Amino acid sequence: MKGKRRGFAAAPPPPEHEEKPLLNQMSPLENVMPHHFAQIAFTPTVKKMQEKLGSRASYARMEDAHHAANRLLTKAEASFISARSSLYMATVSETGWPYIQHRGGPTGFVRVLGEDMIGFADFRGNRQYISIGNLTANDRISLFFMDYPNKTRLKLFGRVRIVGLDDRDMLSRLEMPDYRARIEHGLVITVEGYDWNCPQHIVERYTLDEVRLATAPLTDRIAELEAELVRINAGHSTN
User: Fold this and answer.
1) Would you say 156 and 142 are in contact if contact means Cβ atoms under 8 Å apart?
2) Domain for residue 42, yes or no?
């Protein structure tokens, strides 16, 4: 992905330059809405720090955007989320301590359930239940979706509804039938705001499958040359 926007920009437009959902259906007065991610993240103390360090003016302009910014998922966000095989999620305990955990599964294990809702099946892990315990007391969550090869990250604020095993209708939308892991519950997240981060300081990393795909032409060529060498040696041995 090239030419990604920096800072608190809206999602990079897909090739067809898709407009934000519902944007053109709003009246001019209804269009005057805050940037949802900034509204959550930019607390008074954060704004004071931005002022102190010289970035407040640019972010103030972002907060005054005259459109419903970064609240509903577009095709760009939906496609990006659906292409991920892992994420990082942060919750907060009753004692005020933040906790970050990795969640993973097959590519596409996070389901886009609507323009303001995503969800995934929570598979059995080490059974400490720190994240799920935190979410029981405080439904706020923050997610990071990473695309390391393209140095792209999408961060998202949301509120979680814990789905029990008795809710078969919802779990059927979240489960991965071909993935051999035990589902303990599901997490359905209402999106409250999101933002695409700049690519600075993201180190490019590749999964084993990505490495195999990238090197497939080389390994195929090596196999061809080795086979040719066998034929050449066999011909020499018969002379």
Assistant:
1) yes
2) no
